Amino acid sequence: MKVKSILVSQPEPQTAKSPYFELAEKNGLKIDFRPFIQVEGVPTKEFRQTRIQILEHSAVIFTSRTAIDHYFRIAQELRLTIPDTMKYFCISEATAFYLQKYIVYRKRKIFYADGKFSDLTNVMKKHMGEKFLVPLSDIHKQEIPQLLDQGGFNYTKAILYRTVSADLSDLADIKYDVLVFFSPSGIKSLFQNFPDFVQNSTRIACFGPSTAKAVREAGLRLDIEAPTSQAPSMTMALEQYIKKANKI
Fold it and tell me: Domain map of the chain by residue range?
């Protein structure tokens, strides 16, 4: 069956040069974007119950911009003043630059890696005397605490935000030829919103092995998978499938 419409379970790209827009124009497709999941901050009252004291830590590890937002949100709601001596360890340079939203960047001790948490722990080894706080979502990569444990770091894991299913009730009567997922949470949201969902001729596309596992465990047929050696990106995988399905 030909592919004419695609629903991508992420926010719409903010750049006009997105490969999704190029894919749509090149192949005459309708591509819509709709996040299947959303982030909610842990309430301050609930955080207090964890008895985690932010100012008892001399350094913070940030794995995302969202983690930065909720760290400073909690600090503000608790009326804490983060000292200038606080050290910040970020997963990437882009994440580190995002700190400018909250602090005077050039006056702080900021360190960053190239996007891999294993590389960040290597940077942190020069600062073993620090007590690290790690702001995270309730759903996070287990690699993070594992690598911190292996490295012998003194750290506290703080759950400051949660990934929850978005309300998709307005999509109940809308059908797409392809649904694209990027996390197991997206699959969970699909069935929370539509418990009677039957795949039939709908093609399922996913990115990443954990998402692929969630698709199969949900009893769905996985039609398009990325990354692969032939298709390192989701748009490339979609384009290769569409060429065959639409016989372009």
Answer: 1-36+166-181+227-248, 40-162
Provide the total of helices (H) and of strands (E) in the chain, helices listed first.
Answer: 9, 11
> Can you give the pTM of this predicted structure?
0.77
For residue range 219-246, list pLDDT tens digits in order.
999 999 999 999 999 999 999 999 999 9
Cα torsion at 126, 130, 131, 136 (round to 10°)?
-40
For tokens 């999509």, what's the residue?
A: 171
Fold of 40-162: Rossmann fold (3.40.50)
Task: Answer whether 153's CB lies under 8 Å from 145's CB.
Answer: no
> What's the DSSP call for residue 104?
-
Strand arrangement of the beta sheet that strand 178-181 belongs to: 30-33, 5-8, 178-181, 203-207, 224-226
What distance in Å separates the CA atoms of residue 73 and residue 68, rounded to the nearest whole number?
8
Give 96's contacts (C-beta < 8 A, 6+ positions apart). Answer: 62, 88, 90, 110, 111, 112
